[in-house]
Amino acid sequence: MAEKFINVTLKIWRQKNAQDAGKMVDYPLKNVSTDSSFLEMLDVLNEELVAKGEEPVAFDHDCREGICGMCSLYINGEAHGPDRAVTTCQLHMRMFKDGETITIEPFRATAFPVIKDLIVDRDSFDRIMQKGGFVSVNTSGNTQDANALPIRKEDADNAFDAATCIGCGGCVATCKNASAMLFVSAKVAQFSLLPQGKVEAQERVKNMLHQMDVEGFGNCTNTGACEVECPKGISLDNIARFNREYMKAAVLGSE
Amino acid sequence: MATLDSKIPTGPIADKWTKHKNEINLVNPANKRHIDIIVVGTGLAGGAAAASFAEMGYKVKSFCYQDSPRRAHSIAAQGGINAAKNYQNDGDSNYRLFYDTVKGGDYRGREANVYRLAEVSGNIIDQCVAQGVPFARDYGGLLDNRSFGGVLVSRTFYAKGQTGQQLLLGAYSALSRQIGKGKVELFGRHEMLELVVVDGKARGIISRDLVTGEIKRHSAHAVVIATGGYGNVFFLSTNAMGSNGTAAWKTHKKGAYFANPCYTQIHPTCIPRSGDHQSKLTLMSESLRNDGRIWVPKHLKDVEAIRKGTLKPTELKEEDRDYYLERRYPAFGNLVPRDVASRAAKERCDAGYGVNQTGEAVYLDFKSAFQRYGKEKALVEGVDNPTPAQILAFGKEVIESKYGNLFQMYQKITDANPYETPMMIYPAVHYTMGGIWVDYNLMTTIPGCYAAGEANFSDHGANRLGASALMQGLADGYFVLPYTIGDYLADEIRTGPISTETPEFVEAEKAVKDQIDKLMNIKGTKTVDHFHKRLGKVMWDKVGMARNAKGLTEAMEEIKQIREEFWSDLKIPGVANGMNTELEKAGRVADFLELGELFAKDALHRNESCGGHFREESVELDGEQKGEAKRDDENFKYVAAWEWNNTPGEAILHKEDLKFEFIELKQRSYK
Ligand SMILES: Cc1cc2nc3c(=O)[nH]c(=O)nc-3n(C[C@H](O)[C@H](O)[C@H](O)COP(=O)(O)OP(=O)(O)OC[C@H]3O[C@@H](n4cnc5c(N)ncnc54)[C@H](O)[C@@H]3O)c2cc1C
Ligand code: SF4
Ligand code: FES
Question: At what angle do helices B503-521 and B581-605 cross, to 10 degrees?
């Protein structure tokens, strides 16, 4: 529990911009507090680099409390690093040993092109959402009372669990097919469990799936790797529910 | 010079908003298609506003500095959102929510705005449920509520510890739908760096593309600033790393008055800082105070032993513990409002009783709760004569079901198990009640420029109640701006598209480019964080939880000095025409270094204690309330709205007198 200080060697992917080929670069780092978070460790490295007049390592982050989904990083071959059920910003240096070499790469997928160093472009997730990740209801002040439609607690709880996906893309980076199925299925499942979302269920599942293909994400072959690395514990049950919704849409399809 | 007309409609408080809505101008649907609105920010306020405007038919441009609108810091809100639905039949009403908010704000908010907030609160819940927001429900399938922040009713709607996330994803989905329809153009990873004012009206913004470094001009018929709070002026806070005051500050410098900058909420229950590497502070939800008891040792020798590690907190006897909130505030105990709890923790730590190495931590202990819930559960489970071990195990189970995710988060960060040893907590900067001054329509002192959400100063007075910021953000975005902006835009239907080639745009763009060149060319020796940390330390030590004239005067001087050093010794590597995270931070810190000085100036001028603003000179000298904060209604019952005047220290004060027609002014007492 007590704070210790360790020395590590970082192997970090450096890439100037989208056009640059990029390469791994070694950075030894001394006296890292085991109480600091992984990103705070990178802050220390960056302070040193800037002091030397070198460009700091660019990485995405914002809330630093595991909820915004902005942080990423593929650490020692795992999305969000070796700890379970945490994002990179909540990973702490006490997970690493003195003298360890730590490899840090960006999330890699065709649909997530690198912007700079460890930062990737995940706009493809937003574009999938724009195709159907919503209930078509306008703001009015005259929607029916929130308690007019009771919803079974179990359904509400399952919808909530699906809705906790933070859109980080860890599942895609982990999947050997770079499939976005866990992400997409979580949204489809959330809405299909709620009466408000059922109305458009068929269009939603088809449109979101179509956009997933357009963006260049791979197919899901049920390897289950995504569930293991997902920082929010999004379950494979959502993929099963997605498949059921998709079957329904195909059978009952309006076209 | 702009005048401070708050434009509060006349009439009884409960009728003002309806009357106002009926009287304001509307824009015909065919004309809306030719009107552009820029919304800066995609949090609850900006996201809700942008989606609603687009649904109504306006053309919208939406901006955020993150890659996706879904990552705005509203996502981090844990506890819940208030609404006067009275589903629990505990006597809640619009009036009661209005009253609690005005009182909680220590009578420094505007009555008419607060009433409207309470009035639309119910609509927010209806709207969110219709969007598919999965709020917590009970076994009957109806919405569940919890109580929050020491009020007497249960009106807080929640989605476990992730309420902000679920509400923001609701607004984001509405926004995504409009983007998909081509009604909203999204500019992710774009930062607003200047407001453009043409003929006295807000007509656009200048942004920097954070990926390419390109500086772009954007025009519109109205601009909404919904860029969140400025708590990061303290360097360490519960805000996101990118949270900033830049958009609000640039707007201020273009003519918008900045109101009550010194009103800041310091939240009592955050994880204490652990060392110099610390980059941010993490909140532990206020709901924990329902079951946790706060204490420090009674004797300094025990404090020392605990710090040395020779004594464990669990070994300290009951009679050697000082449950100081229960001692000082027998009526409210551990549930006093946030400002009171924070100051009490500081008082004990300043006196030397802090329980960790830095001396800045107190215990939040669940031992009694384990016992209480454990016995209860043993009864329910039919275990007669339970052993102490059984009771403890049952108790831990109950606590886990209530706060499991928070306990887990605590353990991940601190590596200490809060089921076995009390949590350590300390206050941290959390929310800024101050912000851009707006009238009843949420318009700033620049015509056509609006401010919404945490970025404006409006509804919370000098202290915000828990679960009321989410309510305000969504009220502003879904239910207020969509009406009030039409009143202004009705006069714009003949304006036609706004050109970005006018001298005002050229000049604004040049100002942005000049500032960037200046920053890049300092080529000094110190990093942005170096200056930010120094600013934060001055703010925390002298403009933090307790303030006095001497410290505030020093703070103004010190901030000015740090600012001068910043502009002569800053080092930014890399180039401006590409992604440059150090340059991004530098622009934000440059503005914080000005805002911080105005903040201290405002705190210095307000020689009273109210809500989160505590002046050591203004305390009760005797009687039951001895030592407690003393408000001065005679001299300070106003909103302080500051006008920019070349440098922050020279800002000009304008006062909006606050009239309390519907609520009687009283001293807050929690004894
Ligand atoms: C940890 C935490 C817990 C909280 N818990 C609760 C709670 O339980 N209940 C409650 O009611 N309140 C809570 N609050 C307060 C509440 O969450 C916030 O006040 C509220 O969400 C702010 O919403 P907003 O829309 O005003 O701003 P934000 O959500 O902060 O959004 C700001 C937006 O502006 C954009 N932006 C900022 N600057 C620029 C710029 N220069 N250019 C372009 N875009 C810019 C950002 O990208 C972002 O999209 C909590 C706050 C924190 C920090
Ligand atoms: S499913 Fe999990 S890993 Fe994938 S985006 Fe959502 S939270 Fe991230
Ligand atoms: S920085 Fe927000 S989830 Fe990691």
Answer: 100
